[in-house]
Amino acid sequence: MRIILDIILVAGNGVCVKLPGQISQRLAASGIRLTKQREQVLGVLMQKPDHPTATEVFLRTKKHVSSISLGTVYNCLEALVATGLVKQVNLDRAPTRYCANLMEHSHFFCERCGSVHDVSITMGSGWELPPGFRVSHADVNLRGTCPKCSE
Question: In principle, which of 48, 60, 82, 90 could form an S-S bond with 44, CB 3.0–4.6 Å?
Fold first, then answer.
């Protein structure tokens, strides 16, 4: 009998981030261990879903793991992306951002303040593809002004 435990990370500000037990299984299936560093990086991404850059993830993680380096954060993010636990968000020539929301969604980039927001859109039904083409994955990024900047 195998027991799967949930992992709870407690951030410096007392906020708890609960990581489902399937995370360890998903990493293990990819041949990757859930190290303390990966756990902290994923916790940082789940705690504040604002699509941070690797540098922002590094600065947030360093508050909890003072010995972590920027290179280690990049390696952790690469491993988490490879296992499908984190998505890369690429917006034009801006630095890559990271998203721990694994639900089907797109991203809205505010051209005024630079914030990135998750948005739900219906995929596929409005596209006219040539005969024989089948979409397996789509990355849709929207640009404009967020409600805060539109006031």
Answer: 60
